[in-house]
Design brief:
Strand content of chain A: 15-25%
Helix content of chain B: 55-70%
CATH superfamily of the largest domain in chain B: MetI-like
Helix content of chain A: 40-55%
CATH superfamily of the largest domain in chain A: Periplasmic binding protein-like II
Shape of chain B: globular
CATH class of the largest domain in chain B: Mainly Alpha
Oligomer: heterodimer
Distance between the termini of chain B: 41 Å
Largest sheet of chain A: 5 strands, mixed
Number of domains of chain A: 2
Structural class of chain A: alpha/beta
Number of helices of chain A: 13
Chain lengths: ~375, ~425
């Protein structure tokens, strides 16, 4: 009896020593990984199997981490028709999802090498901050405080939107003045909610906010008449109205600017540039008139700018050929990969947003040469 | 309030650390003093001394905890430094830009006042919901012993159905099926009983009382009457204890309160009147009466239904824990069913039931955070909203955890006080 209890104590002591030793061991590992990557980001690009988490946690290195993981982690939406929604087969589709695909094609050469983490509006930035996702493409509005206080880095705007109001067709509401005292449905954690409070507050229009976390609950609440008005980005309202049984009307007022685009976390310029140029390549391709069906015919183009853009060898006066290297850390053929596997901006827009009734021609999202806002810097 | 909570947490953490380390040092010093003062032959070698082993084990545990904490904190700081996230609490004074339905909060109000406003909504749900769940659970728990077959089976069916569904599903189901689609819109609201009730899927409004002239004085008189009624009840109990005459203390106290209230009402010339709820023609502005937003009604009802099943099971178990002889003795005294439960079974069952009931109350308060799904603006909803409004998530999560911790500690303190009272009276 006495002996066995002593044995137990010794066993416990041994166990606790093992615990301490293992705790110290893991401490040491963490310390060395930290110091290693602080010395310089260059060794991060080497092959690392289990250590990709450590790389992600330190300065820079997202590009290397994504390359070694072989999959792009993309924060997206799963409840917004046209932009990001899960179809009947459980697959993600939409405008924003296609842009995840664009980045995957540019970075990994495979348009399918991405995973979507569906997020509600309020969870977007905490998830991006934690490093759980590499890029956030979830109809997210670019604002000063998000760039600043949320440690987000907003990149090329893929969709120029504005906040609108939707009502049921028989509600008798024709303009913003008529919504006085009404209940207004809105998503929490959005700029939409801030604009609503600010603009209607300034106009002196009283209202009751009904704040939902997800469109999955907001949509039935609007249709059942819990709130008479639904406010969101005008494109979202159009998308939901297209799938509704009831007749709806959109009020004429657009109360805000909502530039939507991809977002990455602060502190990794290399990765931000990669994502930005990948996204902008779709607009440049559109400007050149290159799309997924004719991209191969451009590989033998006479235009050196197009050859440079597609990563084809350019011949100099002496007949020497060289592939232009822009130094972004991407495959020189990244634009070709994007266009051949996903398409240009116009294709992505028409495929996803055409069916929900949005038109590209004449909208702010049209190409700058057509009077729109889509303008990208030169690829040289 | 928020800053106060944070300060409290900091002090508690520092206090705990000082206590733990101080205690350990004291133990070590005491051990060596003992070893030095005792005779040579009495002391075991150091690695066989029970006290030494105990101290080593404590040190090991301490270092393991510190090591794990340092590792996690280092991980966290590596990421926050990489993206430049500041871990200060200055944002609490920033304008939040959010508003809450039926709350005076305006867009310019600070983050901390928005959080406090949300927290009060949580407390409202709890204050209504916990007593209701207790009542429902107790009734259903008793109903499971009913001699009536239908009542018994209905109670069993209710418990088994709702107990086995996740609370979020119950909340969304009650919200969607019963409240959202079961009631008309505010524009076509039901106004039963001569428009004294307004029922819609936007808000519910029921009559309430409203103060008129002299209302302040009337309120003080009522408070005095309440105290006097308590005193009368106490006096009747004394009479019963001393003489054995029927005490009828509830009746006496009630009559005292009502009598004083009635006289005061007449003397003061009608200081209160009924307030009839109103709804304007557009079906938008609710006024007068007592008004509650539909999501809060749905949340409270759903949580009462859900928690009620758990309370019913606790009550059933505690009633079964009361010895069968008690019930037989009550029957032998020819007590009615009500009397049997009121005077014999429930007082004994409650003593068993109360500790697990406290944890159900805590569950109720924590499950109220699921309201975010149905658009009720309570604590979790507000905090989630703030993440999206450029406020830092790590600090907000800490505050969220602290608020629920404070709430739970408060509830369990109240519960434990009641529990102690029950136990002492019982013995």
């Amino acid at each position: 009896m006495n002996k066995s209890s002593k044995m137990l104590r010794i066993l416990a002591m041994l166990l606790s020593f093992v615990l301490v030793v293992s705790a110290c061991g893991s401490d040491g590992d963490e310390g060395s990984a930290d110091s290693g990557s602080e010395d310089g980001g260059s060794d991060d690009s080497g092959t690392d199997d289990g250590g990709s988490d450590d790389v992600e946690l330190t300065q820079g290195g997202t590009l290397a981490a994504v390359t070694s993981a072989g999959t792009l982690q993309c924060g997206g939406n799963d409840t917004l028709p046209g932009f990001g929604i899960v179809d009947a087969d459980g697959a993600f589709g939409g405008f924003d999802v296609d842009y995840c695909s664009v980045i995957a094609a540019a970075v990994l050469g495979d348009a399918g090498a991405f995973e979507i983490t569906p997020l509600v509006a309020a969870q977007r930035f905490p998830t991006l901050q934690s490093g759980e996702i590499d890029v956030l493409i979830r109809n997210t509005t670019w604002t000063a405080s998000r760039d600043g206080a949320e440690q987000a880095n907003f990149l090329h705007t893929t969709f120029y939107d504005g906040q609108g109001f939707m009502v049921q067709a028989d509600s008798g509401i024709a303009s913003l003045e008529d919504v006085a005292d009404a209940s207004i449905c809105v998503l929490t954690g959005t700029t939409t909610l801030l604009n609503l409070n600010a603009v209607l507050g300034d106009l002196g229009i009283a209202f009751t906010p009904v704040e939902f976390e997800s469109n999955d609950e907001l949509n039935p609440a609007f249709q059942a008449g819990q709130c008479e008005v639904w406010t969101s980005d005008a494109s979202q309202l159009a998308a939901f109205a297209a799938n509704m049984e009831i007749d709806t009307a959109i009020l004429p007022e657009i109360i805000s600017k909502e530039p939507l685009g991809p977002v990455v976390a602060d502190g990794d310029t290399e990765w931000a540039q990669v994502v930005n140029w990948a996204v902008m390549a779709t607009v440049q391709a559109w400007e050149y008139g290159i799309d997924s069906s004719n991209v191969d015919s451009f590989l033998t183009s006479e235009d050196s700018s197009i050859l440079r853009f597609l990563g084809e060898p350019i011949t100099d006066g002496d007949g020497n050929t060289a592939v232009a290297e822009v130094g972004l850390g991407l495959d020189p053929k990244f634009a070709y990969n994007i266009i051949s596997q996903v398409g240009n901006y116009e294709e992505i827009f028409e495929k996803n947003l055409g069916p929900i009734g949005l038109t590209l021609a004449g909208s702010p999202n049209d190409l700058w040469t057509n009077g729109g806002l889509q303008y990208v810097p030169p690829f040289r | 309030m928020i800053q106060f909570l944070l300060l409290l947490l900091g002090l508690a953490a520092i206090g705990t650390a000082i206590y733990v380390v101080g205690r350990l040092i004291y133990d070590i010093v005491a051990m060596f003093r003992d070893r030095a003062s005792s005779d040579e032959g009495d002391t075991a070698v150091l690695w066989r001394d029970v006290k030494a082993i105990g101290i080593v084990a404590q040190l090991v545990a301490l270092f393991a905890i510190i090591g794990a904490g340092t590792y996690l904190w280092g991980n966290f700081r590596a990421r926050t430094d990489a993206i430049g996230l500041k871990l200060t609490f200055d944002f609490l004074d920033q304008p939040a830009g959010i508003t809450i339905a039926d709350n005076p909060l305006i867009a310019g109000d600070s983050v901390s006042s928005a959080i406090v406003a949300g927290f009060f909504n949580t407390i409202r749900v709890i204050m209504v919901g916990i007593p209701a769940a207790l009542l429902l659970g107790t009734l259903v728990g008793i109903a499971r012993f009913s001699s009536n077959w239908i009542v018994r089976k209905l109670a069993t069916g209710y418990v088994e159905f709702f107990r086995n569904i996740p609370p979020l599903v119950v909340i969304v189901f009650v919200w969607s099926a019963v409240f959202l689609n079961g009631f008309p819109t505010a524009q076509e609201a039901w106004k039963p009983l001569g428009e004294w009730f307004i029922l819609s899927n936007n808000r519910f409004a029921i009559p309430s009382i409203m103060g008129q002239d002299n209302f302040g004085a009337f309120r003080w008189i009522l408070l005095g009457a309440l105290l006097l009624a308590g005193a009368v009840g106490y006096w009747r109990t004394k009479v019963f204890d001393n003489t054995g005459a029927p005490h009828r203390r509830v009746l006496w106290a009630f009559a005292t309160f009502l009598g004083i209230g009635l006289i005061a009402y007449l003397v003061l010339g009608g200081p209160v009147s009924m307030s009839k709820p109103m709804l304007d023609d557009r079906g938008r502005v609710f006024s007068d009466g007592f008004r509650i937003q539909m999501p809060f009604a749905a949340l409270t009802v759903a949580l009462v239904i859900y928690t009620g099943t758990h309370i019913a099971e606790i009550v059933r178990g505690s009633i079964m824990a009361v010895h069968k002889g008690q019930e037989e003795a009550a029957n032998a005294l020819a007590l009615s069913t009500f009397q049997r439960y009121r005077f014999v079974v429930l007082p004994q069952a409650m003593r068993v039931a109360f500790p697990p009931l406290i944890s159900q109350f805590l569950n109720f308060s924590k499950n109220s955070s699921l309201a975010i799904a149905i658009g009720a603006t309570e604590t979790t909803n507000i905090i989630n909203n703030l993440f999206g409004q450029s406020q830092p998530a790590p600090q907000l999560i800490l505050i969220l955890a602290l608020l629920y911790l404070a709430l739970s500690l408060l509830l369990s303190t109240i519960g434990n006080l009641i529990n102690r009272k029950l136990q002492i009276v019982g013995r």
